[in-house]
Specification:
Blueprint lengths: L2 H21 L6 H31 L13 H26 L7 H31 L15 H9 L19 H16 L7 H17 L1 H14 L2 H8 L5 H10 L5 E7 L4 E4 L7 E4 L11 E7 L9 H4 L23 E8 L9 H15 L3 E5 L10 H15 L6 E11 L1 H16 L6 E5 L24 H11 L15 H5 L1 H21 L12 E2 L2 E2 L7 H4 L40 H4 L5 E6 L5 H13 L4 E6 L14 H19 L22
Parallel strand pairs: 5-6, 5-7, 7-8, 8-11, 11-12
Antiparallel strand pairs: 1-4, 2-3, 4-6, 9-10
Helix pairs in contact: 1-2, 1-3, 2-3, 2-4, 3-4, 6-7, 6-8, 6-17, 7-8, 7-17, 13-14
């Protein structure tokens, strides 16, 4: 909808609500009525101020797109998020106008709803001011701050001091597809329940009982849920995040997930010994180069991988391969009924690197969609279980992924493939590794893959600010503190004693009762929310306000809370009572091209295979994809960029949640299929001509 129409409608609806509720004032609760009327008047005020900001962005945001056919960048997204918030307000306002005279109308509930969206709009207004400052300070067409110190102190002060809880309570997930909101509510409720009891010394039974109590509390009280989620995301340590997101690794939950996933005939976990590999040179196969095993931090060691194949193929049941299996009975991972019905090797091979911020998850967390890919593409898939940070910071993961890639090329006959075409695929951190493994292959002179599919990759592992990264203020899956901690962990800033990664039994670490409880929450929270959130909630006391706008009542000094962005006189965003403890050191390793491929010199990017980027418009890492695609295009590299709408970071793992996520996953599969089915562009080993114009780019 055209933004002028939205703002005109908002102003009209606000006036209609004030008029309709005022007419019913004698029939409604005075306190709640006053709260509702005050909220509508503030919404009207914010809306008029935001309209001018949005008009400014809409006039120029097309200049930051990858191309006219691919509208997408952080400035567009901020406008989209604001518009989504306004549409929710308009919808709720129309409901109030139509029903405020009814006997079943609950003025207190609707007052709390409008109050929550009023606060959210206030904070979004502040984000637009921050983005405008960024737009004015950056060079033309540049989405990232060029400040040598990374995310400058002025922006960090704004982030750490701004109130965020409003985005995790009643307004949770308003910007995403409606089909995803129950899932996001489930994740947040599970996280705050788990976080409250994370460090408490309880028996398994006591912990489970306490979690049941706390989860119900957060279901019924959205404001309390938002405040607790803000506390967790700003202050809990990396080990909490690793533990929580690794819940999907437990046998119980992964077993439940496997019930709905596709059946495959091969699902083997392998341990590849760390031995030097002799690889033919891509430029002259009669010559060879030695690829050393991973050695960073603790010396040579094995690399763990998972082989998934919908069909049993020649070589996949060989004694040589099964000798590498980490399963006590590897034959159980092969469908016994098909042992004698082997298909010939596939000409294709897909090598996968999983996401998880470099700190969490394994191939087991991602095997559900990998099984589907193996069936739909009819291809064997090798997924690499690289060592995780902070125990294994850069470059250990990259070394292991590159070694696994070379081993797969050399031993493709064991994997059921002739490797005539090889594609790398990964999401988030895995997308970063797809790019850097290919760069490493070029630097070693070995064969590069025939193509890359990177979903929402992290291409800039610095803490530089961009308009899309401002979304970390409102994103329940990728808050700023989590993004910064992942970056610090992988680059070694948060490393303590580096030691070999061990495959921990997460179920033992959490306690079976807690894991079982979280499964119950996952399956039941959507139903609870549908029934309970419509009841009168135990509302938390709203923040106190000054005459000039919302103010947090937390007992912090003004110097600590005051940001450095110049806001208009009379406006100040809500401030948090729980300041984030975020360290953003600017270290040289963050700008290493094998850490941040967006910063790689052209010589390291020239010669990459076709790169297919699939990003989400609502992802904090959107600008990573847009800027990397533009950089590849500028040097004549084949690249495509697809931006999907209304989905969060990590949508590959949500393929079974909604139609929208499945359609996005299908786009990723289609890009992989292009790599396998289309003729690769001719390879050249000439140095890039940086002055060349009219380069041919696949887009």
């Amino acid at each position: 909808m055209e933004h002028r129409i939205v703002f005109t409608t908002l102003d009209t609806v606000c006036a209609e609500v004030v008029s309709a509720v005022s007419d019913q004032v004698n029939l409604l609760s005075n306190d709640a009525t006053n709260q509702l009327l005050a909220a509508m008047r503030r919404i009207q005020e914010h809306g008029r101020a935001v309209e001018a900001l949005v008009a400014g962005f809409t006039a120029v945001y097309h200049l930051y797109d990858f191309d006219p056919k691919t509208p997408g960048n952080g400035y567009r997204t901020l406008v989209k998020v604001v518009q989504s918030c306004l549409l929710h307000i308009i919808q709720k306002g129309r409901y109030i106008v139509s029903n405020c005279g009814g006997v079943f109308f609950r003025v207190d509930h609707n007052a709390c709803e409008m109050e929550a969206y009023c606060v959210a709009l206030c904070q979004l207004r502040a984000l637009l001011y921050v983005a405008r400052r960024l737009l004015n300070d950056n060079e033309h067409g540049q989405l990232y701050s060029q400040d040598d110190c990374g995310l400058s102190e002025k922006f960090m002060k704004e982030y750490t001091s701004m109130h965020k809880a409003c985005f995790y309570g009643r307004c949770l997930g308003f910007q995403f597809s409606p089909s995803l909101r129950p899932f996001l509510q489930t994740v947040v409720i599970s996280m705050v329940s788990f976080g409250e009891n994370y460090k408490k010394q309880q028996t398994r039974l006591g912990r489970a009982a306490l979690s049941v109590f706390t989860s119900g509390k957060y279901v019924m009280d959205p404001e309390l849920r938002g405040a607790e989620f803000e506390r967790i995301t700003q202050n809990l340590d990396m080990q909490f995040w690793k533990t929580f997101w690794n819940i999907t690794e437990t046998e119980l939950i992964s077993g439940l997930a496997s019930i709905t996933s596709n059946t495959v005939q091969v699902n083997l976990t392998l341990s590849v010994p760390g031995e030097p590999l002799s690889m033919p040179l891509a430029s002259d196969p009669s010559l060879a180069v030695t690829v050393s095993p991973p050695v960073a931090h603790w010396g040579p060691g094995p690399v763990h991988v998972r082989l998934i194949s919908h069909t049993l193929r020649e070589g996949q049941d060989s004694a040589e391969l099964l000798a590498l299996s980490r399963s006590e009975r590897p034959q159980r991972s092969l469908s016994v009924g098909f042992r004698n019905q082997k298909s010939p090797p596939s000409p294709w091979l897909l090598i996968h690197f999983h996401g998880g911020g470099f700190v969490a998850q394994t191939s087991k967390s991602h095997e559900s969609y990998l099984k589907t890919w193996s069936r739909d593409l009819n291809v064997p898939i090798l997924s690499v279980d690289y060592s995780l940070a902070p125990e294994a910071p850069f470059p250990r993961a990259l070394e292991e992924c590159f070694y696994a890639y070379c081993w797969a090329l050399k031993n493709c006959h064991l994997l059921g493939s002739t490797a005539e075409r090889v594609c790398l695929a990964g999401d988030s951190a895995g997308g970063n590794l797809c790019l850097t493994v290919s760069m490493k292959a070029m630097s070693h002179g070995v064969r590069t893959p025939d193509g890359i599919m990177a979903a929402y990759p992290a291409t800039l592992l610095t803490t530089d600010v961009s308009p899309s990264r401002l979304l970390t203020l409102i994103d329940p899956l990728l808050p700023l503190s989590v993004l910064c901690r992942c970056i610090n962990a992988y680059t070694g800033t948060d490393s303590e004693s580096v030691q070999p990664m061990q495959h921990l039994d997460t179920l033992s670490a959490l306690g079976r009762d807690t894991a079982v409880l979280l499964v119950d929450i996952t399956h039941g929270a959507s139903n609870w929310l549908q029934s309970l959130l419509n009841q009168t909630s135990v509302a938390s006391a709203p923040p106190t306000r000054s005459a000039n706008g919302p103010q947090d009542a937390a007992p912090h000094s003004e110097d600590m809370l005051q940001g450095t962005t110049e806001f208009p006189e009379g406006f100040e965003p809500l401030r948090s009572g729980c300041l984030a403890d975020i360290r953003t050191p600017c270290t040289p390793i963050m700008k290493n091209p094998f850490v941040s491929p967006l910063l790689a010199p052209d010589i390291l990017l020239k010669g990459l295979p076709p790169v297919h980027l699939v990003a989400s418009a609502l992802d904090a890492l959107l600008d990573d994809s847009v800027m990397f695609a533009k950089k590849l295009r500028s040097i004549g590299q084949p690249v495509t960029l697809t931006v999907v709408e209304d989905l969060p970071h990590g949508f590959l793992s949500l393929s079974q949640i909604s139609t929208e996520t499945q359609e996005a996953v299908d786009i990723c599969v289609g890009r992989i299929r292009e790599v396998f089915e289309q003729d690769p562009p001719p390879k050249t080993h000439k140095q890039p001509n940086l002055n060349q114009k009219n380069n041919t780019v696949f887009d």
